[in-house]
Amino acid sequence: MFKKLSAEFLGTFWLVFGGCGSAVLAAAFPEVGIGLLGVSFAFGLTVLTMAYAVGGISGGHFNPAVSVGLTVAGKFPASSLPGYIIAQVAGGIVAAAALYLVASGKADFQLGGFAANGYGEHSPGSYSLTSALVIEVLLTGFFIFIILGATHGRVPVGFAPIAIGLTLTLIHLISIPVTNTSVNPARSTGQALFVGGWALQQLWLFWLAPIVGAAIGAVIWKVVGEDD
Questions:
Q1: Contacting residues for 205 by C-beta, under 8 A, at least 6 apart
Q2: pTM, whole model, 2 decimals?
Q3: How far apart are CA 49 and CA 134, in angstroms?
Q4: Kindly report the CA angle at 218 between 4 and 38, in degrees rounded to 5?
Q5: What's the CA gap between 29 and 42, in Å, rounded?
Q6: pLDDT per residue over 167-202, tens digit each?
Q7: Cα separation, 225 vs 213, whole angstroms
Q8: Out of 110, 123, 152, 158, which could bridge 127 as a Cys pair, Cβ 3.0 to 4.6 Å?
Q9: Rounded to an integer, what distance in angstroms lies between the CA atom of residue 30 and that of residue 69?
């Protein structure tokens, strides 16, 4: 179990440091910033690379909502769920701390939003709570559905990380303007702890919506995609 939890910690660390790091350090870098497209691909690439690196050890969840969805789908033991979630959240928090240490080394550093997730006035596009709730539930549901489909035995072995990584890229392309894209409570928690205030007050949504969405996606998969 130690190896599995370590793999989840490292995978989540890489996801948060790589994805949020691209947003904080590189998205708006003068003249050569990577923009929203680059940030979207950065999140997808973190999952793709770590799924190949440690997916064979832990299953490559890197996300409490994914672990919950797989549990609901009967693909992951409920007894392992608490340990996985703790390892994932810890990885996200340590990644946010490492990113803060790097970012704060800039001469004119200002914390700003620090890639935290938000709605209302803290949404990048000023989208409402309802918009944020709907899109986080919807996109996490599809994320779990695609993960279950891509890892099914009837799909050629070895290609799942590509499909999953590209799905996360697409999810970010859709929803960065709405919530800064969570679909991952561990990703949201680390950033919110450093921003504090409004980010912590709104964090509940980025736990509730992804987990509800993951459960719905898993149930739909069991109806539509699971073998009879």
A1: 117, 119, 129, 132, 133, 136
A2: 0.93
A3: 29
A4: 70
A5: 15
A6: 999 999 999 999 999 999 999 999 999 999 999 999
A7: 17
A8: 123
A9: 40
